[in-house]
Write a structure and sequence with these properties.
Length: 154
């Protein structure tokens, strides 16, 4: 029998009727129709489903919805269009197919908001597990450096 759970997503409260063990990804996509967060592998290995929970990047495909009740959840739709990371993604033309990009952006936003001067190794570590089949890793790293500089100089 479904439970009534209230989640705070992108600054708004949403009450959904779902079992407590349903993955957050399915609540976001199917119940709330926020389709920017993607289903990739389903086993927390590709990063396409990355969202922020209390500011930390987390894989939503394996995260039970009951674990995020009372916590602040941010999806790609909750990141401002003028955020330095999103702007850098456009400036540098990072995406090819674009499928992984919401997860990539969510991990990059978490990084530059925590560390506005990341080293190459810190960028690699923060982005580890975000897979890009098109191989745009060089552009992703360049966009992160540009965004971090904007954050640093803001």
């Amino acid at each position: 029998m479904p439970d009534s759970l209230t989640l705070k997503i992108n600054g708004q409260s949403h009450t959904v009727q779902v079992s407590e063990d349903v993955p957050l990804l399915w609540v976001i996509r199917e119940h709330l129709q926020l389709t920017g967060t993607k289903f990739g592998c389903g086993i927390s290995q590709c990063g396409a489903c990355t969202v922020h929970v209390d500011g930390q990047p987390m894989r939503s495909c394996q995260l039970r919805v009951s674990r995020v009740v009372g916590r602040e959840i941010t999806t790609i739709e909750g990141i401002a269009e003028d955020h330095p990371v999103k702007q850098a993604w456009v400036d540098i033309q990072v995406p090819q197919c674009g499928y992984c990009q919401s997860g990539q952006i969510m991990s990059a936003v978490a990084l530059v908001e925590k560390n506005s001067n990341p080293s190459e190794e810190e960028i690699i570590q923060a982005m580890e597990g975000n897979l890009c089949r098109c191989g745009t890793y060089t552009r992703i790293k360049r966009a992160i450096r540009q965004a971090a500089e904007k954050v640093r100089n803001a």
